[in-house]
Write a structure and sequence with these properties.
The protein is an alpha+beta fold and about 325 residues long. It is about 50% helix and about 10% strand. It has 2 domains: about 55 residues, no CATH class; about 170 residues, Lysozyme. The strands form 2 sheets. The protein has a 3-stranded antiparallel sheet with strand order 2-1-6. A 3-stranded antiparallel sheet has the order 4-3-5.
Amino acid sequence: MVKLQRYFFLSLIVVLGFAASENPNKSYCNKEITTLKTDANITLAYLKIPCVNSEGWDTLNEVNFWRCIITLSKDSSMANIFESRTLLKTFSRGFIDTLEQHNKLDSLRVALCTEYNLPAGTRIKFTGGKKWFYDFNGVSTKLARAITVFDSLGVDPFYAQSVLLIESPGTSRAKSVAGAYGHFQLMPFVATQYGLRVDRYVDERENFDRSAYAAARLFKEICVPYARRWCELYGFAADEKALWFKLLALHCYNAGATTVKLAMQVVPNSYQGKNLIQKLWHTSYGRFQSEAQNYSQIALACYLEYEKFLSAHKTVSVLQYEKY
């Protein structure tokens, strides 16, 4: 295990280190490979993305809403304004469930409108905490491997890190209702398309490196090209190195490129760049509904909370990464 871990960190240095300073004056979102040491002398590495903060993504209601939810205990429920994701007040999950069982939840909504001076009829939602799922300990030692695999295939490791933090922070054993499975939550047909074996005897989606390979190819061959194609088709200025574009490609990974296309076609092209993503967060069309809208919001929230999670560890090195 020690030799394997050393191999991946040496690979990071060799593969990533000397391509990092091609043009320091580029204006796109620069990234950094940050290496840390834990108190147990375990080496961790992750992709630091400063423009999440410098571009103000960390100040958005939607992102801060999800930061709250993924750190809130399972027995808690957060009252929030649905349209803006504005946080109101935390209640026990049992209390909310009891009110709902007795058809009295609307009376609490009325009381909250009065308490917070909100217009009558404001749509208030109660969202349960998901801290039980977002246990970053389970994924922290895997990020370096994923970064290496994606980089070796010519794919921005941003995508690897984002998917892992969203989909399998604590476990790779979760299977979605639709059948997605493994660290990268690949559908069976996607996995087999990229050479993984998925049958009643073997499911290679459980193999980290094999599933990382398939996920990287999916981004390279489908998600990124189609995100660019839809931008060109509907009059949005595509910039593959910009954070907003990478978030758009994440939506393609989660919802499917065609689903994202249908949502983009109803967004006026006066919404460019970051504004396009924010508009998609509140656009419901076809199968582009709640889960699809939320995906990049959760990606940003997970990144920010993961940085907070790592803040207790000692930074060993910071390496500029500007390849993609």
